[in-house]
Design goal:
alpha+beta, 630 residues, binds zinc ion, 5-stranded mixed β-sheet, 20 helices, single chain, binds ligand BES
Length: 630
């Protein structure tokens, strides 16, 4: 029998995340895993889905490689997991019970799980952890039939990024640990299970409990935040030999129509950035409570239905999630400090796909909207949070990740492209993806590679100081090449004339006939704080913005309506906030309501109805806004 775990020593060992002193690049302050002692190489799951209890139940077999001969204690990340037993499975030997001890919970970081490992052997050990998840698991959303499009069947989906994989799988939940994984998911008969992995055999018949087993296999090593699961009444529509769309039957046709360009997007990205290395690329259109626009789960991006506008005008989100197949999934941020390596690169790639498929004008509009958005966001951020390499110690990475990583990150790459020429820069990007394929790297590893493989090619083109300012200083550097807002000049003109009373609404309407979604967003997002009631009436009467089928346009309109206390928009606003759960769309509306006179009460009334339908991640965000802080 291994010796019992000594409490004081084990608490100290598990107390890794520190928040004082200089930050160490490459150290993951959001994981308890002792990755220099042990590394998990493979995760094999066997989980039954219990909708009635809102629990996953079963085991995870972790293949563990010892990194130091004297390492004895394996520390895993968990959050709200009920651990039943931990066993060592050795080939040829009887399974051996291992001593384990969950430490005290530490808020959003969860609870380190310490396991006493046997003395060093040469081969990898397989550790079986029997466990179940809790109904409030932060990385899972359990939906009632009423919350789905079909209204007949329950639905479950996961969202592991940033640090929620630990709420449904005990593992080393750090992006610098890459694992292959396999899984058996036992789903209630009639429902389909999907994962971010290749599909294996599906049992022909349900077992005695009425569960049908689905098998999955991910042969490429990925970080834990890309492990994903969905279970529901899900149908499939093929788009090309390697692409397709999954969705509830009721939304499948609309989704298939909206995303017809999927294969062209993959082909375009391959041409620009090298081969697509994941086999298939499918989309899963989630129910409307999905917390994010998209999540780049490998082989199967999870997508909000709020981008189905009917005119393909919001498909940049698809380009974005696809692009993560290179920036993020192939080359991964080693810690959440390096998040900009994932998102800044991905926005750059996304805009290149949009440009190739929909033209330079559309990409330029997206660039301008992105710039406006990061400028607005930066105005409210402390200086340190405007750095690309951001210190997130002590904070939930879900809250610390802003447009800085996305749009400032993209502008940094555009700056490099402008100095070296786009072709040279993009050849560099291809070599970067090849060089670091299936690895997790930190900011400094990228900068070293940049130095040796781009900067050194043309000495003097960019100074070390310029690079330093981009990565380690606040604001947008003077060297930034900002997109010209020319594309929106006609929209600005119409807005100004109309607000001044010099352009009747019918003329506005005639002009707006040609406007894209992006032009509408620019029009709405740049109205002054106060808009006169007759102008609001005109807008609503002519364009029925409250009922827009375009969730982004409706969002921008509701912000104006709330700011101006425009009560005719409140019933549709209530409907909007109680049917969709995408954080980017709902959070600003609650914030605006809390600032508006009398809005606090409305916010609380709406939230009381809406909360149960929101994802746990979004509930946490909105709780903090709507619940009065003492
Ligand atoms: N990987 C992100 C989503 C994410 C980030 C989840 C951080 C959890 C923590 C995804 O690729 C993303 O950026 N989605 C955006 C859409 C994109 C077009 C900017 C979103 O959800 O709005
Ligand atoms: Zn992204």
């Amino acid at each position: 029998m291994p010796a019992p775990i000594n409490d004081a020593a084990s608490e100290a060992a598990a107390a890794k995340p520190r928040v004082e002193g200089p930050i160490k690049p490459g150290v993951d302050y959001h994981s308890f895993a002792n990755v220099t002692d042990f590394r998990v190489r493979h995760v094999d799951l066997d989980l039954a889905v219990d909708f009635a209890a809102r629990r996953l139940r079963g085991h995870a077999d972790l293949t563990v490689a010892r990194q130091k001969p004297d390492a004895r204690r394996l520390i895993l990340d968990t959050r709200d997991l009920d651990i039943r037993a931990v066993t060592l499975l050795a080939k040829g030997d009887a399974p051996k019970k291992l001593v384990f001890k969950p430490s005290a919970a530490r808020g959003f970081l969860g609870r380190p799980l310490q396991i006493e490992m046997p003395a060093a052997g040469t081969s990898d050990a397989v550790v079986r952890i029997e466990y179940e998840t809790q109904p409030q698991a932060s990385g899972l959303q359990w939906l009632t039939p009423a919350q789905t499009a079909g209204k007949k069947h329950p639905y479950l989906f996961s969202q592991s990024q940033a640090i929620h994989a630990r709420s449904w799988i005990p593992l080393q939940d750090s992006p610098q640990v890459r694992v292959t994984y396999s899984a058996t998911i036992r789903a209630p008969d009639g429902l389909r299970a999907l994962m971010s992995a290749a599909h294996g055999a599906v049992d022909k018949k349900p077992d005695a409990d009425g569960l049908t087993a689905y098998r999955f296999d991910m042969k490429e090593a990925i970080p834990s935040y890309l492990i994903a699961l969905a279970v529901g009444d899900i149908a499939f529509h093929s788009i090309s030999a390697r692409t397709g769309v999954y969705a509830e039957p009721a939304v499948l046709a609309a989704a298939a129509k909206e995303f017809v360009d999927l294969e062209r997007m993959v082909a375009t990205c391959e041409k620009l950035f090298g081969p697509y290395r994941w086999g298939r690329y499918d989309l899963l259109i989630l129910p409307p409570s999905a917390p994010y626009g998209g999540m780049e789960n490998p082989r199967l991006s999870f997508i909000t239905p709020t981008i189905i506008a009917g005119d393909r005008s919001l498909v940049a989100v698809i380009a974005h999630e696809l692009a993560h197949s290179w920036s993020g999934n192939l080359v991964t941020n080693a810690t959440w400090r390096d998040f900009w390596l994932n998102e800044g690169f991905t926005v750059y790639l996304e805009r290149r796909i949009v440009e190739a498929l929909y033209g330079a004008r559309r990409a330029q509009m997206e660039d301008v909207l992105g710039l406006q958005s990061v400028k607005r966001e930066m105005a409210d951020l402390g200086a340190a949070d405007q750095h690309l390499a951001i210190d997130l110690r002590g904070r939930d990475p879900d809250d610390g990740t802003t447009d800085v990583a996305y749009e400032k990150g993209k502008l940094f790459l555009q700056f490099l492209a402008s100095r070296f020429g786009r072709d040279t820069f993009e050849a560099f990007l291809r070599s970067y993806f090849d060089h670091f394929a299936f690895q997790s790297i930190d900011t400094e590893q990228f900068l070293d590679y940049l130095d040796a493989n781009l900067l050194a090619k043309k000495p003097g083109a960019v100074s070390d100081q310029e690079i330093h300012v981009w990565v380690y200083e606040p604001g947008l550097p003077g060297s930034a090449v900002l997109p010209s807002a020319d594309v929106f000049a006609p929209v600005d003109r119409v807005r100004a004339l109309w607000l001044a009373g010099s352009m009747p609404i019918d003329v506005v309407q005639a002009q707006a006939k040609e406007w894209s979604t992006q032009e509408w967003l620019h029009f709405l997002d740049n109205t002054p704080a106060e808009v006169q009631r007759p102008r609001l009436d005109e807008l609503e009467q002519k364009f029925a913005l409250s009922d827009s089928g375009n969730a982004e346009i409706a969002h921008s309109w509701f912000r104006i309506a709330i700011r101006n206390g425009y009560s005719p928009a409140y019933p549709p606003l209530t409907r909007y906030l109680t049917t969709i759960g995408r954080r980017k769309l709902v959070r600003p509306l609650y914030e605006d309501l809390m600032k508006a006179p009398g809005g606090g009460e409305l916010a609380r009334t709406i939230y009381a109805k809406a909360r149960a339908g929101y994802h746990p991640i979004v509930q946490t965000s909105i709780d903090a806004i709507v619940t009065p802080q003492r």
